[in-house]
Specification:
Elements lengths: L1 H31 L14 H11 L3 H17 L3 H17 L3 H12 L10 H17 L3 H13 L4 H17 L3 H12 L6 H18 L6 H14 L2 H15 L4 H18 L2 H14 L2 H125 L5 H16 L13 H10 L7 E5 L3 H4 L4 H22 L3 E9 L2 E8 L12 H12 L3 E6 L5 E8 L2
Parallel strand pairs: 1-2
Antiparallel strand pairs: 2-3, 3-5, 4-5
Amino acid sequence: MKEAIKLSFNLVKNNRLKYHYLLLFFLLIFLSCKQKIKKEEKKEENIYYKKAFGYLDNGRSDSAFFYFNKAKDAYLLQKDSLEAGKSLVNMGIISADKGDYFGAQEISLNALSYFDTKKENQHVYIRSNLNNLAIVTHKLEDYQNALSFYDSAISLSKDSLETRVILNNKAITYQKLKNYIEALKIYNSILKVPSLNRKEYARMLTNISYTKWLQNSTYNAVPDYLKALHIRTEEKDLLGLNSSYSHLAEYYADKRIDSALIYAKRQFHTANKVNSVDDRLSALQMLVRISPAKETKQYFEIYRNLNDSLQTARRSAKNQFALIRYQTEKRKAENLKLQKDNSDKKHQIYTRELMLLGALFAFVALTAIATLWYKKRKQRMELEAQNALRNSQLNTSKRVHDVVANGLYRVMTEIENQADMDRENVLDKIEALYEKSRDISYEEPVTSNYNFQEIVSEILTSFATDQTKILIAGNTADLWNKVSNLVKYEIEQILQELMVNMKKHSGASHVGIKFEQKTDQVNIYYTDNGVGLPKGFQQNNGFRNTGNRIDTIKGAITFETTGDKGLKIKISFPIS
């Protein structure tokens, strides 16, 4: 049987290999008909990216934006999403600096899709982008979403200085929400950092005092303001000085006008030094508010001209940035249309070639498949004939084992253990075995006119000896009433096989067989105190036949050894 299965497997395997080789042959023909593949062009260095940084360093942010946009498109053609994302981050920061907050928000949101948060080497760019996105969202007064973006940036930050900068920005957003408690929590947590430098320390003193003053207008913020101012003067921190002057001017505006004027003028002077237009406007607003009447008009004219110039520049930047993006998208659309037209023409040519090649391939493939199918069918029929013969031989062997071998062994056991056995009875049993062996190749007729309870009892007790006690429980006529004759026949052979194996191999002195019915199932429990199943137990023909019979009646059999001695077997099968 194993040889037949192996032969069948090899035939199928060989045919499959032939079929795969044939498909591979035609696939190579198909590929050879296509146009030659162009050699992959070596990635060129992105000159636009370098140009963009050159313009950025020279303060020409509009030109830098233009070349970052061109660099982004070039990187996308090279399928380099990381560099494309970095270009977008820079475009978003430029837009934010120019006051184009909506444009910056759109660009920064678009940049997120080009990064992979799972790659740690990209976190620095993602953090920068999220921080910028949070800042512009704050500027657009969408404070809750700004907080969310800050939290996302902090979650990717491992640099303590960078984290403190983002936390400071987050606290400013809490100030705008008038959630002074949360803002102070953040500022105080930063203030406790051991590695805080003097500039950061001065910033935190100023921010904490300013927040407490916003929370309570009677709070005296001046001591900490002046302490921070002193540190910033020593550190020559112009941006910090600008902040200190602004806060002192605001504090004194409603208390000591002369002091407020001094600090507002200092802020205006410092803002000119650092070229901060927004801080100059802030200082001018304060000067217009608190200056004497004759000076107010002068400051107002300066403020109006500066504000008009700023708004004009920002509108120009917005329009320019929008125009750059529009022209880029327009070129993309035109290129896509041109590519589509070329693709359609190529598609028509390929379609004609493929139809011709497909027809040829189909004809050859069908011919090959038909040939293989015929050979496989012929081989299958031969194999089925061999299997039928083999199964017939196995069935005959099984019948010989069940009817003759086990039957003879049972008679031998009775002769061996019953000294006064009736000679005529023994001859009758041997003659019955003889008659059965003559018709061994025919199906066993299954009759219903016999008492199965007695047959079971006779089989089991026939193996009892002075050395082996057989105990039977539950073998009643009611138990077998609903069991079919076919199942009874199989159970008879199974029980006989179990007892023969017990007699031959177990050396048991006590054997128990219990029968029980539970709902629609019959359970048979076999136990003995023999040697049990040895390690590495291999099933012999008898056990294999038993397993086949169990499968035939849709039952189940389990074996269990009990320590070094004993064997338990459970057989269960449905009644109908």
